[in-house]
Backbone:
């Protein structure tokens, strides 16, 4: 029987603020899982700490709400141990690019086949609005006593530089595009990163829904000029098509250049996609030929309570 | 027949083959049927600092090092400066005669602390601050000297084999040192050549050169060195004896126990285990396709433990391996495993702290930290092995405990165990059982609750990927499904559910696996971990003088088996706590749990493991009522 969207929803009370961008992301994840008809027990949402960390409780698949900044290690561990699982990791920008930045970079280098979604709103919501790593230098959101003194992290640029093989951005109020990007990210064979721009109606009074819609910046006919645009509508080709240094350089550098665009024009869509680079699974398989069919989680280790691993050759080599 | 018991020391700059030299020596002794106990000491350094290996050889059971060195072989000056004074009367020093004129000032790696101590000693004996000064001094103490020019030997081998390149191959000094020792001790040359062959099995040319040099040096010693009372000419070979290194017990234990996932971050002295696991990552499985241990080098220890937990959630037996600094980083994540009742094993090879401390030296200073690491209150097991052989079987127990009680298990070992090499009975996988507790393979019900309240407080455990087994985990307090709950009644139920496990663990782990009693007398030692070997050897030395001291080896340290310990100690009058730290952590734990003070402490925190000689000396003082409350041991360079 086909799984319905409602099958992916839990009854757990959702306590996000009214109007929060998180809702759009949660819905899009559920829509993507339903569209792909992923059996509920084969999927797991791993989440970090913060408002976004609660996402795993709202989705009716395995849900692992981890520690602040540590969502990627937990998620990678599960995926490496059982590659049959579909794993989506979710967390805030503070979680992933502040306290968890080291794991972000290391995860890119590994390229484990899973999806990582950052709920990017520029503030630490649950602790009452401190500046997060993506807030721009000098900006002062409403609960900051003084303007932000740190330069911002560029999530797209960092992902590209760290080795993520699918790098995209979405906007939480464009749920259709967001859902499509989540499906593409899950289908991507390698580590996919999705930076989701998301207003925080309570604490970020700069990057608001109206700001993204360009309400204050109207054109001559007094229509708002939306800041968000879609890369695919500009003919942008993010895909590394073949193994070639010049091709790779071009695709990496155009992604980096695009990642710097901000202000009046904010690109969304896929910035970079490379399926030529071997996912981590393949790197393990090079050393352990039957890893994919017989990964750690599927191995038998005992029969009738006794071990079945035969270490006699190792012990022979130690005999004197 | 007189029993054989000798200690052989080889030293040299790090990177010069001290360890491989010692391995050859140990292997030859073991092959002859002797018991071997070897230990390596080294600096936190790649090349150049002083490293040494002491191998004790006997035809009776030995479990420790002793203070006295019987035979020392040295191909550099520093080894003589640092260790000549440890050689016993009647003992021998085989050394490179080309170094006799070397002065203390000419050895830059001799640190000022040691140098000034040595020079003071030499001054008091009216000796020059040089190798010849030191050697004159020890000669007067009754040590026999065997000078030989190592370069001279290389030249002769070069000439004999018509291979002038050999002349400059000072990399072979270690093999020369070992070969001279074997000749001197009257050991058979065949096993020497076999050992060299197996060590260089992938480099036949190098094996050949080494064999030529070894043969020459061996014959040289046989012909020229005057014999002493020290000789090794045949032990009693027990069938199925293995020569095993510290990290191999836990590593092989993990393979047998079915650990299939080990993320780790490099740290001394723990990473050797991981490297060994990875080197043997493909496993033979009885009547099935090959299995494997997936070993992942992570970006830090936080990630290592996070990944380990991720693996464990899929039902995979998962573990990580670390030392103090790494374990400190894991504290928060450990609490997550605790609240979510995730079975994992952390193999904790302690070294001396605090902070980076003595990064390549021994210590047992993390006991209370292992018990208390992480904020909040959650159940865990802290379990300590006393030696390499035990560590194999204990590893299997630790995995069972973690699965059955659904708690993180911290398996304590230390640098002493990690850098020891011993002979022992071949590990017997038949003695290992695998108990996965309430891990489910199938779920029939429609309303599975991961944290369902049960009579014993332990809930049936699903795993990621299992149909009808969906659950939620969170570091927040949670309800039976695993969803966040801040309800006060739920909180109490969940806290009680988790922490009731500590009592349950004490009731269910067999008592003989909690505490091992080696006899209880009026004087009784309590201790934990790697002090076991030197304590048992010291007790045996006392026994020969008709003095009895009891010994309880505490293996289960948390939850603490208070009642068991109290009842075992009911006839003991004087309790002696032996451990390698400054504050007597087991003593504190003992007092906290039994209400009793220990009477004496025997402590060591130099970063060097205890010798049985030192423990014997302190116990003797205690028995004679001449000891201080705190006996602090200091032997060892």
Residues:
């Amino acid at each position: 029987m086909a799984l319905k969207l409602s099958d992916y929803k839990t009854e757990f009370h959702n306590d996000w603020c009214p109007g929060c961008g998180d809702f759009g992301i949660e819905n899009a994840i559920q829509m993507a899982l339903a569209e792909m008809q992923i059996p509920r027990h084969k999927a797991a949402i791993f989440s970090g700490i913060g408002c976004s960390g609660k996402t795993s409780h709202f989705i009716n698949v395995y849900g692992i709400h981890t520690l602040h900044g540590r969502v990627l290690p937990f998620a990678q561990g599960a995926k490496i141990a059982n590659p049959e699982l579909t794993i989506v990791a979710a967390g805030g920008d503070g979680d992933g690019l502040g306290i968890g930045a080291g794991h972000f970079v290391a995860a890119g280098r590994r390229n484990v086949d899973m999806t990582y979604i950052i709920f990017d709103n520029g503030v630490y919501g649950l602790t009452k609005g401190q500046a997060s790593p993506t807030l721009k230098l000098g900006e002062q959101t409403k609960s900051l006593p003084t303007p932000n003194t740190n330069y911002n992290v560029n999530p797209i640029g960092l992902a590209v530089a760290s080795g993520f093989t699918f790098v995209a951005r979405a906007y939480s109020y464009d749920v259709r595009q967001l859902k499509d990007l989540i499906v593409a990210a899950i289908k991507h064979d390698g580590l996919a990163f999705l930076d989701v721009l998301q207003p925080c109606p309570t604490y970020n009074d700069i990057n608001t829904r109206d700001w993204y819609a360009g309400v204050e910046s109207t054109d001559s006919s007094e229509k708002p000029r939306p800041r968000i645009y879609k890369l695919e509508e500009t003919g942008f080709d993010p895909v590394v098509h073949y193994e070639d240094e010049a091709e790779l350089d071009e695709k990496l550098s155009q992604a980096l250049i695009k990642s710097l665009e901000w202000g009046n024009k904010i690109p969304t869509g896929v910035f970079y996609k490379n399926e030529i680079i071997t996912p981590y699974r393949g790197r393990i398989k090079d050393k352990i030929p039957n890893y994919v069919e017989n990964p750690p989680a599927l191995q038998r280790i005992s029969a009738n309570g006794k071990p079945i691993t035969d270490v006699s050759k190792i012990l022979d080599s130690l005999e004197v | 027949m007189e029993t054989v018991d000798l200690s052989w020391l080889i030293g040299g700059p790090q990177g010069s083959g001290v360890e491989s030299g010692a391995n050859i020596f140990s292997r030859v002794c073991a092959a002859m049927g002797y018991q071997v106990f070897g230990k390596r000491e080294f600096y936190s350094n790649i090349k150049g600092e002083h490293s040494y290996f002491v191998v004790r050889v006997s035809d009776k059971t030995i479990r420790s090092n002793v203070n006295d060195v019987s035979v020392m072989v040295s191909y550099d000056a520093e080894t003589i400066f640092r260790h000549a004074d440890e050689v016993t009367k009647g003992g021998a020093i085989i050394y490179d005669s080309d170094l006799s004129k070397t002065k203390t000032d000419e050895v830059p790696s001799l640190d000022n602390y040691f140098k000034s101590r040595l020079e003071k000693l030499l001054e008091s004996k009216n000796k020059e601050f040089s190798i010849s000064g030191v050697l004159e001094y020890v000669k007067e103490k009754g040590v026999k000297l065997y000078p030989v020019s190592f370069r001279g030997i290389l030249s002769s081998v070069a000439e004999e084999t018509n291979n002038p390149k050999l002349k400059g191959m000072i990399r072979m000094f270690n093999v020369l040192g070992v070969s001279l020792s074997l000749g001197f001790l009257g050991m058979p040359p065949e096993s020497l050549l076999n050992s060299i062959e197996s060590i260089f099995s992938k480099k036949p040319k190098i094996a050949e050169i080494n064999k030529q040099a070894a043969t020459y040096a061996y014959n040289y010693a046989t012909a020229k060195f005057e014999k002493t009372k020290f000789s090794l000419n045949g032990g009693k070979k027990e069938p199925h004896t293995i020569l095993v290194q510290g990290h191999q017990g836990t590593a092989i234990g993990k393979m047998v126990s079915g650990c299939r996932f080990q993320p780790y971050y490099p740290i001394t002295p723990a990473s050797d285990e991981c490297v060994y696991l990875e080197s043997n990552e493909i496993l033979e499985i009885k009547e099935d396709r090959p299995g494997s241990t997936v070993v992942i080098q992570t970006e830090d220890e936080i990630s290592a433990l996070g990944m380990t937990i991720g693996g464990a959630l899929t039902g995979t037996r998962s573990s990580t391996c670390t030392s103090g600094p790494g374990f400190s980083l894991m504290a928060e994540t450990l609490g997550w495993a605790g609240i979510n009742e995730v079975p994992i094993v952390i193999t904790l090879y302690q070294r001396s702290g605090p902070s980076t401390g003595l990064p390549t030296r021994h210590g047992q200073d993390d006991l209370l930290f292992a018990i208390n690491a992480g904020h909040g209150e959650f159940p865990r097991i802290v379990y300590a092995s006393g030696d390499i052989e035990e560590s194999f079987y204990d590893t299997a127990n630790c995995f069972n405990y973690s699965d059955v009680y659904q708690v993180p298990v911290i398996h304590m070992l230390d640098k002493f165990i990690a850098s020891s090499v011993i002979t022992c009975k071949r590990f017997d996988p038949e003695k290992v059982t695998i108990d996965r507790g309430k891990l489910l393979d199938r779920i029939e019900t429609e309303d599975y609750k991961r944290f369902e309240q049960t009579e014993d407080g332990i809930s049936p455990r699903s795993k990621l990927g299992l149909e009808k087994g969906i659950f939620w985990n969170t570091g927040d307090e949670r309800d039976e499904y695993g969803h966040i709950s801040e309800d006060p009644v739920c909180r109490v139920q969940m806290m009680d559910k988790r922490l009731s496990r500590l009592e349950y663990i004490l009731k269910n782990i067999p008592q003989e696996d909690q505490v091992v009693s080696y006899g209880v007398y009026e004087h009784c030692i309590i201790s934990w971990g790697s002090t076991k070997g030197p304590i048992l050897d010291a007790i045996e030395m006392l026994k020969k003088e008709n003095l009895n001291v009891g010994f309880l080896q505490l293996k289960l340290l948390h939850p603490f088996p208070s009642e068991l310990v109290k009842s075992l100690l009911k006839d003991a009058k004087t309790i002696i706590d032996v451990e390698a730290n400054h504050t007597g952590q087991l003593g504190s734990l003992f007092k906290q749990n039994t209400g009793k003070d220990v009477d004496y402490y025997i402590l060591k925190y130099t970063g060097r493991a205890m010798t049985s000689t030192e423990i014997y000396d302190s116990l003797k003082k205690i028995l004679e009522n001449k000891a201080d409350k705190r006996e602090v041991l200091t032997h060892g360079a």
